[in-house]
Fold this sequence. Notes:
Blueprint: H1 14-23, E1 30-34, E2 38-42, E3 46-47, E4 57-58, E5 67-70, H2 75-78, H3 106-114, E6 121-125, E7 129-132, E8 152-155, E9 172-173, E10 176-177
Parallel strand pairs: 3-4
Antiparallel strand pairs: 1-2, 1-8, 5-6, 6-7, 9-10
Amino acid sequence: MCIRDRTGTEVESAAGCAAACCQMGSKCITWQYRRDKGCLLGGDVRVGQEKDGPGNWCEDSAPAVWHGQALDIGRDSACGDGWEPNSLSGQCFGLGDRQRISPDTAVACRDACCAQPECLTWQFREDKGCFYAPTSRAHKNACEAPEFSPYRGQRKVVSTRKYQPPARSPQKYAGWDKPS
């Protein structure tokens, strides 16, 4: 969810949400709908890897399960046989840039975090890669509760935006670009 404003009326479908946004003209640039959250209307947002535009941002891929674990309690166990890679299945924020690890797996991500004594949280997802907090920037409290139903939504074109780089440009990694 990247839009915080509700419509104030009961909209019961994605089509109804889109129509509500269109009726608002330039006061609504972006809409999102999910049955459990209802219709969300808002201003301009960046999507995916776009860098120009407002501070508000939307993920360009559907929600999916993450693997991850907080290491602040029981670190020795979590970094060994007692790891629980499904304990943080919702996305955590504040973990920094994607980390270059080899192999690019959940186990290697956990091991890379465990190799740094100050690392408190790691997460891995097949299509997103490895992320971990080398400082106390992130903690399990910064992780979303798991909800894996995707939103439906759209964004109107804003003439002053360049939309660069494109929303689905290659993922940037910490300090390097992934080879093609």
